[in-house]
Design a protein that fits this description.
With 90 residues, this protein is mostly helical. It is built from five helices and no strands.
Length: 90
């Protein structure tokens, strides 16, 4: 939750600076958010597509590439730690 509060605070600070400089946001908020969503989804097309070409189901491809975690990030209330890769820690 702290990350969300920091993000909101940074956005408010930028908004205040824009106001002081008498400039408008470069994009309407909804357009900017849709653009950011497009970027996040676009980053996952190639890795998920490769898994699909190898015969994996869509949900399996998303799990193997961790696409869902990348796009959604850690959701509020999901304090579960990611699994530790035993090979890397050995």
């Amino acid at each position: 939750m702290k990350l969300y509060a920091m993000s909101l605070g940074a956005g408010l600070l930028v908004g205040v600076i824009y106001s002081l400089l008498s400039v408008r946001s470069p994009a309407p908020p909804l357009v900017a958010l849709v653009g950011l969503l497009g970027i996040l989804l676009g980053e996952q097309i190639i890795p998920v597509g490769k898994q699909l070409l190898h015969g994996a189901a869509f949900s399996t491809a998303c799990e193997q590439t961790r696409a869902t975690a990348h796009v959604l990030g850690q959701l509020p209330g999901n304090n579960e730690k990611p699994p530790v890769n035993r090979q890397e820690s050995a």
